[in-house]
């Protein structure tokens, strides 16, 4: 499951506009129109980007209580946590391998 989440995360964020949307939502919830203006995307294009991000689970939306027509979008932290866990594993792997290589070189130098 985690691998599928990580794959989908990178697939969705391969698009620079979607990366920018995620970055903007990291600052706080926003409306679709605000995101479109901030990214320079048209409303229909932003709608498509938001749909992809919603389907991937990277963002969520909620209705504003005073106006059911207004949707606020915000980040969903769960996929980010899965990717961070994967990155931590990759980092640990490289740290271990580089440490072993360093010990090997130091042992050879002592000879």
UniProtKB/TrEMBL annotation:
Which terms are listed as keywords in the entry? DNA-binding, Transcription, Transcription regulation
Q: Taxonomic classification, please?
A: Bacteria, Bacillati, Actinomycetota, Actinomycetes, Propionibacteriales
A Pfam family that this protein carries is: HTH_5
Annotated GO MF terms: DNA binding; DNA-binding transcription factor activity
Q: Domain named HTH arsR-type: which ranges?
A: 1-98
| Native species | Kribbella sandramycini
Q: What is this protein called?
A: DNA-binding transcriptional ArsR family regulator
Q: Which PROSITE patterns match?
A: HTH_ARSR_2 (PS50987)
InterPro entries with a match to the protein in the record: ArsR-like_HTH (IPR011991), HTH_ArsR_DNA-bd_dom (IPR001845), HTH_MetalResp_TranReg (IPR051081), WH-like_DNA-bd_sf (IPR036388), WH_DNA-bd_sf (IPR036390)
């Amino acid at each position: 499951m985690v691998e599928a989440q990580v794959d989908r995360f990178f697939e969705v964020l391969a698009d620079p506009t979607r990366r920018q949307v995620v970055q903007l939502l990291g600052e706080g919830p926003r409306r679709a129109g605000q995101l479109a203006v901030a990214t320079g995307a048209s409303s229909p294009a932003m709608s498509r980007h938001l749909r992809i991000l919603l389907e991937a689970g990277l963002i969520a939306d909620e209705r504003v209580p005073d106006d059911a027509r207004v949707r606020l979008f915000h980040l969903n932290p769960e996929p980010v946590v899965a990717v961070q866990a994967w990155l931590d594993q990759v980092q640990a792997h490289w740290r271990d391998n580089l440490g072993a290589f360093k010990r090997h070189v130091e042992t050879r130098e002592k000879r």
